[in-house]
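Long-time lurker. I teach an intro course on protein structure, and each term I like to show students one example going from raw sequence to a predicted 3D structure in token notation. This year I'd like something fresh instead of my usual example. Would anyone be willing to generate the tokens for the chain below so I can use it in lecture? Attribution to the forum is fine with me.
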Amino acid sequence: MTGKQGSSPESFVREIKRQIRRKFGVEKKIRIVTAIQARKSYLRPLPQTDLDLVFSLHYERRVKKDGTFSFRSQEYNLRQCAGAMVTLCLIPKQKLLVAWNGQKVGDFSL
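-- Reply from a regular --
Happy to contribute to a lecture. Here you go:
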């Protein structure tokens, strides 16, 4: 560090902390990437995922044999999943998604 004569102790401490964060931040990223590659970390890259399915309120429903299900006093049609258990993924005031076997099979506006 190149310091100026007469700089305050506070600015000196801030500069030292900045240098430490910069140095160890890069080293931490390298350690994380190395651990992931060696499969020694709980951190894993996510596969291509629809985050609407992840960050929503989930409800289980059985689709009737005629391909309909009800949610909040409203009937919805989903013929391809007749008789199956599905997961309803609610994004409040926006939409209702339907997932079956981990795949999105329906999308309804609210």
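Some talking points for your students: Residues 8-45 form one domain. The two ends are 59 Å apart (CA to CA).
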